[in-house]
């Protein structure tokens, strides 16, 4: 069965605790993309990672491994979730259909007030990451994202051989506030391609 597993990024504690804000896997474009994938015959699951305000690699890994990953699986990660997937695939012996990294973040930081587990990104990127997929790795970036994301993107472009890059105009960090819409047809297209 074709399936897609979507992984959100890191949020702050205030958002996490606010009962008026949807959970990380239920905001921005996640529900819109999931629904379109399901209608297209792809079983889509947006995982709610534990404690999104303080990601811990082993905890996120355990959550991902509750799902069967195989040659019919497309992994989609946003921001910290994309960085998590890069680490996971760099360290684990798995083979999936495709990986789509949306605005990937690799822990490159500027100033922030939230605590973050620095060990989350202590790993070596597997240059042959594309070889762990059937249809490759796609990196989706925006022309106006944050500097730490732009730096992470450049690191991946340098270190991952054969990765395809899709650059979109004016999407910021691919969050609702920047995109001004929940619709993300370009991502649906990349998953289905």
Could you walk me through the main structural features you see in this protein, from its secondary elements to its overall organization?
The chain is an alpha/beta fold and 193 residues long. It contains seven helices and six strands, in the order E-H-H-E-H-E-H-E-E-H-E-H-H. The radius of gyration is 15 Å and the shape is globular. 38% of the residues are buried. The mean pLDDT is 92.
Report a brief summary of the structure.
With 193 residues, this protein is of the alpha/beta class.
List the helices and strands and how they pair.
Elements: E1 3-7, H1 13-17, H2 30-39, E2 43-47, H3 57-64, E3 73-78, H4 80-91, E4 98-102, E5 137-142, H5 147-159, E6 164-168, H6 176-179, H7 185-192
Q: Report the β-strand fraction as a percent range.
A: 15-25%
Strand sequence of the main sheet, in spatial order?
A: 2-1-3-4-5-6
The main pleated sheet reads as:
6 strands, parallel
Number of helices: 7
